[in-house]
Design goal:
- The protein has three domains: about 30 residues, no CATH class; about 45 residues, Orthogonal Bundle (Arc Repressor Mutant, subunit A), CATH 1.10.10; about 190 residues, 2-Layer Sandwich (Nucleotidyltransferase, domain 5).
- By secondary structure, the protein is of the alpha/beta class.
- Helix 4 packs across helix 5.
- The chain contains twelve helices and six strands.
- Strand 2 and strand 3 form a beta hairpin.
- The protein has a six-stranded mixed sheet, sandwiched between helices.
- The C terminus is likely disordered.
- The relative contact order is 0.11.
Length: about 300
């Protein structure tokens, strides 16, 4: 427990626990992580969900079971909740992320999105690792597919979502609309206050709607199949560096058919925007194309004051 100081010479651990009104046993308790089998199941669930987002817990359990090993649907349902994964389908869903949080209507239906910073899309995804897992939060510009900001955390708190939002706004200004799902992080008072306070209209997916946040969903599929699954990062630092490199590649080198074979950075005009950002104005003077190496002076690294890893 972080609030108990073992080095305190004046107050014993017993007395500190009494003052904090917590049991002494809770100080010594170390929560167990998921078992190796569960981590393997979570990775398989993540892959299956990308391929078949309409699979619920029962169908997922059937696909993961073999004649030798039957996977319990209750276990799959618990792991899917922990991963913040649910089946996507157009039917009504009675589950709510947080019943006392206000939700906002979906504003993008029949909306023609034809300019940058008109709509940003924001979401959280589960990242499997050999000995655990992390959560990745990212914001993407809907029109250009430019990845504006991202943060990494081992818990799904509102803080790392706010960090990603504040970072994006500080560099690129505020969008007209921010679209999210109805997760408790995005419906929390802290988050909605920050969004509305920046004079951004807040839009939220309908529950179980497959295409309401398609811009960020496409990015999740790309980064997982083109990077995460291929590398199986052993440590959080390696994962962070790998995501960093991939975002550089995705924004500045990966050409999209839907963008007439231009990169997201070209369509967004990122070089011009970044050249006016105070922290990198001396570094980002439209570097020559020959620079391909990824190092600490690269575009995305130079935007980071503090590591976005919240551990």
């Amino acid at each position: 427990m972080a609030l108990v100081n073992k080095e305190d010479n004046e107050l014993s651990i017993v007395r500190q626990c009494q003052l904090l009104e917590v049991s002494r046993s809770s100080h010594y308790h170390e929560p167990k992580g998921e078992s190796k089998l569960n981590l393997e199941l979570m990775e398989q669930i993540d892959r299956l969900h990308l391929e078949h987002p309409y699979f619920g817990a029962e169908r997922m359990a059937k696909h993961l079971s073999t004649p030798e090993v039957q996977v319990n649907v209750k276990r799959i349902r618990r792991l899917m909740r922990k991963m913040d994964i649910s089946a996507i389908y157009p039917a009504p869903n009675t589950s709510e992320a947080c019943k006392w949080h206000k939700t906002y209507p979906y504003l993008l239906r029949n909306l023609k999105i034809d300019r940058n910073n008109m709509v940003w899309s924001m979401d959280i995804t589960y990242i499997p690792m050999p000995k655990g897992f992390m959560y990745l939060c990212a914001i993407i510009d809907w029109n250009s597919r430019y990845l504006l900001s991202w943060t990494l955390s081992n818990t799904m708190t509102v803080e790392f979502c706010l960090e990603a939002l504040e970072k994006a706004i500080s560099i690129y200004g505020a969008p007209e609309i921010l679209n999210t799902d109805q997760g408790s992080q995005f419906t929390s008072e802290d988050f909605t206050t920050a969004v509305l306070g920046a004079e951004i209209r807040l839009s939220m997916d309908g529950v179980g709607r497959a295409t309401d946040n398609i811009a960020i969903e496409r990015f999740w599929r790309s980064i997982k199949y083109e990077n995460i699954y291929l590398n199986a990062y052993d440590s959080t630092l390696d994962l962070y560096k790998g995501i960093h490199r991939y975002v550089e590649f995705y924004n500045w080198e990966r050409k999209h058919q839907g963008l007439e074979y231009k990169t997201p950075a070209e369509v967004y005009g990122a070089a011009d925007k970044l050249s006016t950002y105070p922290q990198i104005s001396t570094k980002r003077k439209k570097e020559p194309k020959k620079e391909k190496g990824y190092n600490s002076s690269n575009r995305f690294d130079s935007l980071i004051n503090n590591s976005p890893i919240a551990v």
